Write a sequence for this structure.
């Protein structure tokens, strides 16, 4: 009888624990949903608030009677506003992804075209720090992948912009484009501050920043690489990070399935700038 009672008590305990766990999970899910809603509302409000600033800076920049001092002021303000817009846009994207509201428009894309679009987006940043930029094309063919033009450009420009950011002036950014086992590989390497081995695995986590790199981060939030990973994975690809350690540069690689690899129409382009 005692054994039967013990067995029954044990069953009740298990049932109570399961009920507790279910409630705790539901509470966590609700908190998570509210966090997503809060993030979405906050980033929308911030983005709306920034719109007049973007407009005013653009008008101010174009004003003919600007003195050199005013021009310098507008240029600096413009850079800060641009930085804030990018930060808030990244926040908006994080909110869109977590609420399943991001839509991709998939099409056939030439990988080198996307590399060049991304470089255009970061050119000012790369030039301001007098970095050298090199494209190494190792695939020997035109690589075509299926992806979203805007989002893939965003992915690569994010990596390029990080390379430019986490490097003292006058560094080198190398983009290697290769074809490996049915995948297009785009590697963005820099000669910058590098990443300690123990931090490599978490650089793609949301809000993750490597310690002792604050001097380079210029107020980032640790969102960009998390977005890069999610956007690439949504397009059937993968990302990875490598570094030989502090002071020895970093390499970020994006891999996407190739849908077509044709002989190139012209000689391999090499950009330097
Ligand atoms: P943010 O740059 O805004 O901090 P990211 O998500 O883009 O956020 O990057 C996360 C962290 O990874 C950065 O804070 C930085 O510590 C590290 N990191 C990213 N790119 C590089 C790079 N090219 N070289 C060295 N560290 C990097």
């Amino acid at each position: 009888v005692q054994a039967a009672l013990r067995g029954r008590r044990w069953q009740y305990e298990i049932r109570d624990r399961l009920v507790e766990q279910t409630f705790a999970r539901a509470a966590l899910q609700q908190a998570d949903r509210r966090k997503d809603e809060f993030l979405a509302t906050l980033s929308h409000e911030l983005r709306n608030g920034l719109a007049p600033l973007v407009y005013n800076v653009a008008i101010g920049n174009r004003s003919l009677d600007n003195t050199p001092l005013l021009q310098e002021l507008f240029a600096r303000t413009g850079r800060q506003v641009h930085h804030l817009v990018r930060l808030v846009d990244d926040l908006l994207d994080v909110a869109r992804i977590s609420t399943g509201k991001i839509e991709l428009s998939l099409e056939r894309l030439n990988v080198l075209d996307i590399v060049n679009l991304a470089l255009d987006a970061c050119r000012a940043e790369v030039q301001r720090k007098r970095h050298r930029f090199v494209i190494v094309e190792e695939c020997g063919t035109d690589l075509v992948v299926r992806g979203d033009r805007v989002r893939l450009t965003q992915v690569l420009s994010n990596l390029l912009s990080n390379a430019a950011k986490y490097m003292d002036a006058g560094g080198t950014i190398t983009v290697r484009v290769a074809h490996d086992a049915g995948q297009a590989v785009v590697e963005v390497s820099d000669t910058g501050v590098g990443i300690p081995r123990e931090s490599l695995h978490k650089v793609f986590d949301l809000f993750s920043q490597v310690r002792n790199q604050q001097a380079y981060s210029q107020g980032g939030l640790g969102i960009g690489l998390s977005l890069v990973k999610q956007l690439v994975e949504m397009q059937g690809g993968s990302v990875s990070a490598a570094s030989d350690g502090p002071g020895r540069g970093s390499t970020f690689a994006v891999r996407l399935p190739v849908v077509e690899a044709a002989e190139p129409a012209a000689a391999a382009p090499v950009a330097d700038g």
The first strand starts at residue 106 and ends at 110. Residues 94 and 227 are 7 Å apart (CA to CA).
